[in-house]
Amino acid sequence: xxxxxxxxxxxxxxxxxxxxxxxxxxxxxxxxxxxxxxxxxxxxxxxxxxxxxxxxxxxxxxxxxxxxxxxxxxxxxxxxxxxxxxxxxxxxxxxxxxxxxxxxxxxxxxxxxxxxxxxxxxxxxxxxxxxxxxxxxxxxxxxxxxxxxxxxxxxxxxxxxxxxxxxxxxxxxxxxxxxxxxxxxxxxxxxxxxxxxxxxxxxxxxxxxxxxxxxxxxxxxxxxxxxxxxxxxxxxxxxxxxxxxxxxxxxxxxx
Length: 255
Description:
Elements: H1 6-9, E1 18-26, E2 31-40, H2 47-51, H3 59-77, E3 85-89, H4 98-101, H5 103-112, E4 119-124, H6 132-144, E5 148-154, H7 162-166, E6 171-174, H8 176-179, H9 186-201, E7 205-209, H10 214-223, E8 227-229, E9 237-238, H11 251-254
Helix pairs in contact: 3-5
């Protein structure tokens, strides 16, 4: 007797994709806490071009193949030689059953000897969710299976803080538009400080993404953010783990 949802058993389109990897850096150690897998075309084509070719009926197949490519390419790039986690983007609306739809991911992790407790699954807040209860069930199911979860682009999407009222992920990733120019904007600083305090109270770790300048980095460190991702530290490496360049500490920290 077959098990799992219909989509899991249906033959679907095959996508020619590869992955780039960008580190999420622990500012306290200067080491990669995780690498986010970013979908690319086989020759490095951008995510927008790849995603634009995915029809609604192929979302499940695309989501599944991205998970496989993320793990296989990360292992090939040498992630097992580090202690870093692997953060994989997923489409909540493409997950029919958390348990059934994770089986190919688990099979790939076992085949490549990648520890499943080092997996993080992140979904973007900017994707409108037809059923937040369904997403909450995915988050809770993944937690029971030992995976961490993250809300990407937090503060730029459809739901805002309402998501955290309905369910709590292990991480939230502050959207780059929220922190762009935070060093020169009191409103942005106050908003981010509030989000960080709320996250701390809920035992959620905050990642600042899209960091491009040292002043932005310095202000966020003052606020208490520990994890960073952005061009200031490293650009995505196509099928490789890029070198991290940490900014010099501010003079006040050195004195």
